[in-house]
Design brief:
Layout: H1 2-6, E1 13-18, E2 21-27, H2 30-33, H3 40-50, E3 66-72, H4 76-84, E4 89-94, E5 120-122, H5 127-173, H6 184-187
Parallel strand pairs: 3-4, 4-5
Antiparallel strand pairs: 1-2, 1-3
């Protein structure tokens, strides 16, 4: 989980244990691989399935003697994959209130009438540590978000300033003698047009109703 945090990923890490030994470990890599399915559990499962010593071809449920320890409750997708592979048991740190598949949202691990047997899932294992590292991640994300927002505001302000400057230049050029040198005196040569005298004024009647 710490490695995932350092890599800018949602800090979730896991280990698969068989006969008292760790046979696989992994972390979230969704951002790194630009693949939303690359959760820690599936990363580790791919490693196990790729090793013939860990997964004999004759075994129907390659995880039937394996226990998973993961910092956050497996999501619905991962909980389903674990069931299809016959995981023995799952221990997780904190619950997953948005996508949890082991009780928080759905009980994928214990749903009846499925083709594969269910499994036990127990939460609260190092729960405080799991929550704290998630908080560290989201605080960092919020800070980065504010920095990006501030940058966007700055770009918008500079854009408006540039537009105002260009409009001002266009206005002055249309009212100055372009053959004369541009000086502070020349910039002050523009005068507003004088109103017409009363003698030269005519009353417009075409705009009046008949």
């Amino acid at each position: 989980a710490e490695e995932a945090l350092a890599a800018g990923e949602v800090p979730v890490g896991c280990v698969f244990v068989r006969d008292g030994s760790i046979i696989a470990r992994a972390r979230n890599r969704t951002n790194e691989l630009r693949n939303a399915t690359r959760h820690a559990e599936l990363e580790a499962i791919d490693h196990i399935l790729a090793d013939e010593k860990l997964t004999p071809k004759t075994v129907q449920y390659p995880l039937s003697t394996t226990t998973l320890y993961v910092t956050v409750e497996p999501c619905i997708m991962c909980a389903s994959a674990l069931r299809q592979l016959g995981i023995k048991e799952v221990f997780y740190g904190c619950g997953n209130d948005r996508f949890g598949g082991c009780g928080s949202v759905l009980n994928v691990h214990q749903l009846s009438h499925l083709a594969h047997d269910g499994y036990n899932a127990t939460g609260g294992y190092c729960r405080e540590d799991a929550i704290m590292i998630l908080r560290r991640f989201y605080i960092t994300e919020n800070t980065n978000g504010m920095q990006k927002f501030s940058l966007l505001v700055l770009v918008a302000e500079l854009t408006l300033l540039l537009i105002f400057t260009m409009l001002s230049i266009t206005f002055f050029r249309s009212n100055l003698d372009m053959n004369a040198p541009i000086t502070s005196t020349a910039l002050c040569q523009y005068t507003a047009p004088l109103p017409k005298s009363k003698a030269n004024r005519t009353l417009k009647t075409d705009i009046l109703p008949p």
